[in-house]
Amino acid sequence: MNLSEINISELLPHRPPFLMVDKVISIDDESVSTQFFIKESSIFNDNGKFAEAGLIEHAAQTCSCIVGKSFYDNKSTVRLIGFISAIKKVTIYSLPKVNTTITSKANLISRFDADDYSLCNIECTISQDHKELVSCNLNLIIREIN
Fold this sequence. Notes:
CATH architecture: Roll
Number of domains: 1
CATH class: Alpha Beta
CATH topology: Thiol Ester Dehydrase, Chain A
Strand content: over 45%
Mean pLDDT: 91
Low-confidence stretches: none
C-alpha cells in the first residue's frame, strides 16, 4: 500500500469538520500511526487548546483505520458506520494547543468479525513532540450499512 496515495475519505467515513485524521504514516492489519493538524477552526477548539472530546474522537478515528484498511485494500463498496462502544480506559496528561500537529499510534488487541459487523479492542497513544498526551483503550463497533 502506497501511503502517499491513501485517500483518507475512502479509509474513514468522516468528513470535515469532523474528520480528525490528516495523514496515515504507517498501517498494517494490526497497527496504524496517523497525524492530525489541529486547526484554529476545529469544533474542538476550547480557548486555544484541543479539548478532551477531540482527543478521544481522534483516537477513535485512528483506531478505525485498522478496520477500514481491510475494506480499502479490497476496494470494497460496502458502506460502513462505526462508533465507540466503550471507553475502557483513558488517561489525558496534557491538552495540545491549536495550530499544532499530534501523532497517534494504535494497536489492535482483539477483533471479532461477524457477518455484517466487527468488534475491536484497540489501544492508542497520542503524542506531540515525543511527549505522550493521551493513552487509551477503546472498544469499537464497525457495522455494514445496507
